[in-house]
Specification:
The protein has 1236 residues and is an all-alpha fold. Among the domains are: 150-174 and 187-207, no CATH class; 319-336 and 350-435, no CATH class; 445-461 and 480-701, no CATH class. A two-stranded antiparallel ribbon has the order 1-2. Helix 21 (523-539) packs across helix 22, helix 24 crosses helix 25 and helix 44 (996-1013) runs parallel beside helix 47. The protein is extended.
């Protein structure tokens, strides 16, 4: 028997099985039957039948050439042509085309608009059936329209009435006659009356009713009204009243018309004919006889030509849709602009000027070229103002995010494919405005010459881990890789998470190459394309590689925009920049080279950047046959590109070739233009780029020269005002999928990158002093005056109290300030004058350590090795600090009137021992950070300028700080992750690794030292996170917490935690879903391995305080009631006031029932669990004898407890439960006295 194919079979297996099947002659599972054509006769049918029976496959031999079409083939039947079926035709479409069922006719049903159809009440009659109208009773119409049936006359009367009601709802401007003094009836509609004169009969009945009402007095009217209301159905009365309220305006607003005059807004115009035409004066345009079809007035078309009403704000508190003008300015809702500005249109709210975002998206898909260009230009202006943050105070939400969610990326990408150059140029400018922030680029250029200024973070969005549904339940081998997941994602999903990746996936680079090479657009479009390519290169190293690998892209840029020879342009603003060198193209090469040393080598050797550097830098900028501004910019970018290459140890041979030109430039530095000259900023940037080049060449050559510089202490006075760490400023709006630096307005406000910022000077000064002290250690005391100056001390004090946030908008500036802080701390000598500020320097180092960003791992290693664990910076350890803590503990014990366990040591002795073990503690933490060794080595090469070993000037991805904020708890957390594994809901604890006890001891010693003397350094760690991390002592092993050193240190930390009022256990700890899960694990571990340990018992009792959630107390008295037998912690050992457990009284009825049950059943006894015994007694006692009003369920529970207490046989428990009844105003202390 032949086997069925399997999914794992290869193509060779399938072919082999097919051959076996054909040789076996077995019958196939399915057969193809072809119906013969009846027109061909029976011969063909017989031949087809024979083919089917023989089971053979016939191959038709086709001729080599097509047959001639002359003479023409005979005409075929059109019925047969309708039955022709093609192979690629969709079967569903063919079925729909031949579907004759009624559902095919009724598939699209559009509901008729009934908003203007009048609703009339049915006529009340005593007859069971409607009255029959005979021809003899119905008067004939005298009109000349011919005979009409009764039904036709009724329909005509109905339409006449509907036309009048529609006329009543028309605008006031369309009503040309005055209203009648007597209004028509609102209740009697006359619908049941036959004949065309039903309206007259209705008015007659209405006048008779009014005459009767006038003849009656007010009291008679009210009496008849009451009688009528009592006889009618209340629902019918409500319906009539609601109809009257709809037709009559509210009487709350007084009428503005004098008495005797009828208001056009209050009364309907019953006498206005539906066929009334406006006069010739009312028409916007006077008709002419020569105009065709102008003899008939069409009011609905004339409405479009009327003047627009004045805009007014809607009487609603809801936000209104934002509208913009063509410059991107937001138009207020009530602003009345003239129509000649072109901002009014026939969309929604035509009286309001401006275009909404939705209307601009619709206009960008117009068939009119000018409308598409206008919409794209307006969107570009809106994006530019959104980058500058001009909409933050006026609009709700983020304009950039709204546009991206609406599909702006796809709109611009499709517009780039437009064949009209104007539309393509507008789309390119809008894309440039979306991706590129000119202020960000200018800010990065200004900091390029700083220390580590050429290094920058990749502008990648924050990583969002999303577990695919397809990967759930699969093993690690079966799961798709990241690259496979990216390839399977749609363009929309990729662009939603990362705009740059989405554009690259949509083949943006080949399109830009085509525009540059074939379309050859205007200079502004060329500049936009170069800036967009630069922004893509800043995204990541992979994006820069895609730009390098795009076919013919760099060749076109080098040939057209960085030529080796060119002619001088005829005007300062040429119509075409093709054949002229551009600074934007050189900057693109510089940013591409920053992505890695291999990319830089490709640019220098394969693309031809080396020849361009020689051509541009070998002569003076004034001899380049370019406009002076462009000449300075392109030479500045050339120096920067060379500096980046020298930072890799490349292009150093070019230094020898261009040495005369470089010396000449250095000699001419002092000949700077006048300060008022407009080219001075560009010339200074060029000089800075030259100095950056010389610095990198010097590092590469290994030459260390002493540089002359002066110390400007006054610069420190402005350090705090420009600090990024100390000043948290709001930044313009950004979107997560398109991160930026948010630098608009950086020149006009105080900041680290502002032109008046002292940070570059101070960083250079710090580098110089560090170099000097590295050569001669004895010179460090010469700089004591700088380190002890008031500006430096004030700046360090402000930094030690700051809590900066991490984001793309702040990270690139924070790294520069981190360098300055590190250099200041490294210069601190250990001298008597400096010792009095040693704690401040140590505090600053502790605060700086968790701030350091990726790329600064070497700084973290140096701080840990030299300052953090240096006993000279912990002055409290050798100046009476431990003794002061012991005295404080003694005073605390005297005030609290209780003593701790006699077997425990004081915190002062533990601190004294921790100070002695500081070198061992440092070794412990450096061992646990050994996984960062490779990153430390890479960072060391960059920070020490070991250029031949630098792989890239692009810093690692900004995923977070180098060290977590809770790094002092790292040994505990890592030990828990290694030993505690999940096993069926519990914890299966493996054997502790070698050295675990010593590592935990050192970690607890360091934590105790920080909690007592450096509490500010741990303020970034939430108290609940501290409690969760310390709980790992009990969860990572079954006996680790029983060791003597761990017991002593954990007791000391517990005393500090128990006095912490800010401990909020209702918030989930970082890294955990909820604190309840952690507490459940602690309870399970206590029942399993605690053996009644008092320390573990105190740790479990701490979350049971009254101010925390009742869920934890329910877990103890419900799921883990067995642990009450071994929870023998006394009040003296707990060191927490009992009032924190008993006040206020418990209000959870299920928990009170559990308290009462544990007391009555004997699960909770005084000598087993003294603390919770008093807590349960207090809460049950207060609940039973409470005088507050309560729900019925609570009262029933209270009576049930009293009834059960009455039958208790335990006299002591009976007395304690009736404690509140015995004493008028009992206290917890009195209750404790009787318990003991």
């Amino acid at each position: 028997m032949l086997r069925r194919p399997k999914p794992t079979d290869s193509e060779a297996d399938l072919l082999r099985e097919q051959e076996q099947f054909l040789t076996s002659g077995a019958q196939s599972a399915a057969s193809v039957i072809r119906r013969p054509d009846k027109r061909r006769g029976e011969a063909e049918a017989a031949s087809l039948h024979n083919c089917k029976c023989n089971g053979r496959l016939f191959v038709v031999d086709l001729p080599d050439q097509l047959p001639s079409l002359t003479p023409a083939p005979p005409k075929k039947s059109r019925f047969k042509a309708n039955r022709v079926k093609f192979e690629d035709e969709d079967a569903a479409e063919r079925l729909d085309r031949h579907d004759t069922h009624i559902s095919a006719v009724l598939s699209r049903i559009v509901e008729r608009d009934t908003s203007s159809v009048p609703i009339s009440l049915p006529v009340f009659t005593g007859l069971a059936f409607p009255q029959v109208h005979h021809r003899s009773e119905v008067p004939l119409s005298s009109g000349g329209g011919g005979k009409k049936s009764i039904f036709a006359r009724q329909i005509a009367a109905q339409r006449l009435k509907e036309g009048k009601m529609l006329l009543h709802c028309a605008p006031r401007s369309a009503q040309s006659t005055e209203a009648r003094e007597v209004s028509g009836s609102r209740l009697v509609s006359g619908q049941g009356l036959g004949g065309p004169d039903s309206t007259g009969e209705t008015m007659k009945i209405h006048r008779e009713n009014e005459e009767k009402l006038r003849a009656m007095s007010q009291s008679e009217i009210l009496e008849e009204q009451k009688k009528l209301l009592s006889q009618l159905d209340p629902r019918l009365v409500d319906f009539v009243r609601s109809r009257k309220a709809q037709s009559v305006p509210s009487s709350a607003s007084p009428s503005k018309h004098p008495q005797g005059q009828s208001s056009k807004e209050s009364f309907p115009h019953d006498n206005v004919s539906r066929q009334s035409e406006p006069s010739e004066k009312d028409l916007p345009v006077k008709p002419q006889k020569e105009w065709v079809h102008m003899d008939k007035v069409e009011p609905e078309k004339l409405e479009w030509m009327r003047d627009l009403p004045a805009p007014r704000r809607k009487a609603t508190k809801m936000a209104m849709e934002a509208r913009f003008d063509f410059a991107g300015m937001l138009i207020p809702p009530t602003e009345d602009l003239p129509t000649h500005l072109g901002l009014h249109h026939h969309g929604q709210e035509p009286e309001r000027a401006g275009y909404s975002l939705q209307e601009l998206f619709l206009l960008s898909r117009s068939q009119v070229i000018q409308q598409r260009s206008l919409a794209l230009s307006t969107l570009a202006n809106i994006l530019a103002k959104a980058h500058n943050g001009e909409y933050q105070s006026a609009l709700k939400g983020n304009v950039m995010s709204t546009l991206l969610d609406a599909g702006l990326i796809f709109l611009l990408r499709f517009a780039l494919d437009d064949s009209i150059e104007g539309v393509m140029s507008a789309a390119m400018h809008a894309l440039n405005t979306l991706l590129v922030c000119t202020e960000d680029e200018a800010c990065l250029d200004s900091t390029f010459s700083w220390f580590r200024g050429m290094a920058s973070f990749p502008l990648l969005p924050c990583a969002q881990e999303e577990e695919d549904e397809e990967d759930e339940g699969l093993g690690e081998i079966m799961k798709m890789t990241v690259k496979e997941k990216e390839e399977r994602k749609s363009d929309h999903d990729v662009a939603r998470q990362d705009v740059i990746k989405g554009l690259l996936k949509m083949k943006l680079l080949p399109r830009l190459r085509y525009i540059l090479e074939v379309v050859r657009p205007s200079p502004r479009v060329v500049q936009d394309i170069l800036e967009v390519l630069t922004r893509i290169a800043r995204h990541s190293s992979s994006s820069a590689t895609q730009v390098l690998d795009c076919p013919r892209l760099l060749e076109v840029i080098m040939t057209e925009f960085l030529p080796t020879s060119w002619t001088a342009p005829a005007s300062p603003l040429p119509h075409s920049v093709y054949g002229l060198p551009l600074a934007g193209a050189m900057k693109l090469l510089r940013v591409l080279s920053t992505s890695g040393r291999h990319a830089c080598a490709r640019l220098l050797n394969s693309v031809g950047a080396r020849e361009r550097l020689s051509r541009l830098l070998s002569v003076d900028p004034s001899e380049l046959l370019l406009e002076p501004t462009e000449a300075l910019r392109i030479t500045t970018e050339a120096y920067r590109l060379w500096a980046v290459a020298a930072g890799y140890g490349q292009a150093c041979q070019l230094y020898i070739d261009l040495y005369p030109a470089l010396v000449k430039e250095l000699q001419s530095v002092h000949r700077v233009l006048a300060p008022s000259h407009p080219l001075v900023p560009l010339q200074l940037q060029r000089v800075l780029a030259l100095l950056s080049l010389l610095t990198q060449v010097t590092h590469t050559a290994g030459c260390h020269q002493e540089l002359q510089a002066g110390m400007l202490l006054g610069a420190f006075y402005s350090t705090r005002s420009t600090s990024v760490v100390c000043n948290i400023q709001s930044s313009p709006e950004t979107t997560p999928s398109l991160p930026g630096l948010a630098c608009p307005g950086w020149r006009d406000r105080l900041g680290l990158a502002a032109p008046c910022s002292p940070f570059p000077l101070l960083t250079g000064l710090g580098l110089l002093l560090e170099t000097i002290t590295g050569i001669h250690k004895g010179l460090s005391h010469k700089f004591t005056g700088l380190l002890l100056s008031e500006p430096v001390i004030g700046y360090l004090r402000s930094c030690s109290q700051a809590t900066p946030t991490l984001s793309h908008t702040r990270a690139w500036l924070l790294q520069h300030e981190h360098h300055l802080l590190y250099l200041l701390l490294r210069l601190v000598p250990i001298e008597p004058d400096v010792v009095k500020h040693a704690s401040l320097y140590h505090q600053s180092a502790l605060v700086l350590l968790p701030w350091l960003l990726p790329g600064s791992e070497y700084l973290a290693h140096e701080l840990l090795s030299t300052i953090i664990f240096n006993k000279d910076f912990i002055s409290e350890g050798h100046s009476g600090g431990p003794e002061a803590v012991e005295l404080g503990e003694l005073k605390l014990h005297e005030d609290s009137h209780h003593r701790a366990s006699p077997s425990l040591q004081t915190v002062g002795a533990l601190l004294r021992e921790a100070c002695v073990q500081l070198p061992s503690i440092r070794g412990c933490f450096l061992t646990h950070l050994a996984h960062l060794e490779s990153s430390v080595l890479v960072s060391r090469d960059s920070l020490l300028s070991r250029n031949p070993w630098i792989k890239s000037h692009l810093l690692p991805e900004l995923t977070g700080p180098t060290l977590p904020s809770d790094w002092p708890y790292l040994p505990l957390v890592s030990l828990y992750e290694r030993t505690g594994v999940s096993d069926g809901g519990g914890l299966a604890v493996e054997e502790l690794p070698v050295g675990a006890l010593q590592a935990v001891t050192h970690c607890l010693q360091w934590l105790l030292l920080l909690e007592v003397w450096r509490e500010e350094a741990l303020k970034v760690v939430l108290p609940v996170a501290k409690f969760a991390r310390l709980s790992c002592v009990f969860l990572c092993s079954s006996d680790l917490f029983l060791e003597r050193p761990v017991q002593r240190l954990t007791w000391g930390l517990f005393r500090l935690k128990s006095r912490l009022d800010s401990l909020d256990l209702n918030a989930p700890p970082p890294g955990l879903a909820s604190f309840q899960d952690l507490y459940s694990a602690l309870l399970a571990q206590y029942e399993a391995v605690s053996f009644g340990d008092r320390l573990f018992g105190c740790w479990v009792l701490l979350p049971l305080q009254r101010r925390y959630s009742a869920a934890m107390r329910l877990a103890v008295f419900g799921e883990h009631v067995g642990m009450l037998r071994s929870l023998g912690v006394t009040l003296q050992q707990l060191s927490i006031p009992i009032e924190r457990f008993t006040s206020p009284p418990e209000d959870s009825l299920p928990l009170l029932r559990l308290y009462f049950r544990s007391l009555v059943t004997g699960s909770l006894k005084r000598h087993w669990c003294p603390v919770l015994y008093i807590v349960a007694l207090s809460h049950v006692n207060a609940f039973i004898f409470s005088q507050d009003a309560a729900a019925q369920e609570v009262e029933a529970a209270r009576h049930s407890m009293l009834w059960k207490i009455y039958y208790l046989t335990d006299e002591v428990l009976l007395f304690l439960l009736n404690f509140a009844f015995t004493f008028v105003s009992p206290s917890v202390s009195t209750l404790m006295f009787y318990v003991h």
